[in-house]
């Protein structure tokens, strides 16, 4: 299993489940900042058509191309289903944001051979590792 730093370094396309249009929410600020540092952000939110200048998709299964990482901004109770969907689309890694922990989601990811991070923030990890995808 890769470390959180390796997962971020290897990822170019991040699907963000629960991405928010509200700039006051972490589910908007975090993906927006990752995009500013060069990651392609694919919003997954059934209530919007576009976020961060990218088409939004209602579910992971609706994304028409591979993603490198599924970032989750949903309650822990929803994480199990999101991880199942991530496994179904062949995502190599799942990341549950700060405050989101699920033993069942972890088990599903591990059994499927999917790298798994929980209760950690993408932008904190990005900054700590001084990572950027910009040329």
TrEMBL record:
- Pfam family of the protein (one): CoA_binding_2
| UniProt cross-references to SUPFAM superfamilies, sorted A to Z | NAD(P)-binding Rossmann-fold domains
A GO molecular function for this record?
Answer: ligase activity
Provide this UniProt record's keywords sorted from A to Z.
Ligase
Ranges of residues in domain CoA-binding: 8-100
Going by the entry's taxonomy, the superkingdom of the source organism is recorded as Bacteria
* Tagged with keyword Ligase: yes
UniProt protein name: Succinate--CoA ligase
Q: Taxonomic lineage of this organism?
A: Bacteria, Bacillati, Actinomycetota, Actinomycetes, Micromonosporales
């Amino acid at each position: 299993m890769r470390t959180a730093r390796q997962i971020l370094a290897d990822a170019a396309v991040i699907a963000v489940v629960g991405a928010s249009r509200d700039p006051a929410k972490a589910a908007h600020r975090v993906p927006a900042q990752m995009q500013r540092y060069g990651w392609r952000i694919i919003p997954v939110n059934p209530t919007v058509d576009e976020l961060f200048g990218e088409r939004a998709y209602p579910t992971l299964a609706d994304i028409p191309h591979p993603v490198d990482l599924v970032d989750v901004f949903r309650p822990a109770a929803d994480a199990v289903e999101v991880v199942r969907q991530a496994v179904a689309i062949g995502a190599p890694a799942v990341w549950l944001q700060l405050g989101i922990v699920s033993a069942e989601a972890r088990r599903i990811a591990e059994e499927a051979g999917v790298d798994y991070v929980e209760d950690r923030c993408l932008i904190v990890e990005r900054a700590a590792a001084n990572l950027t995808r910009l040329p």
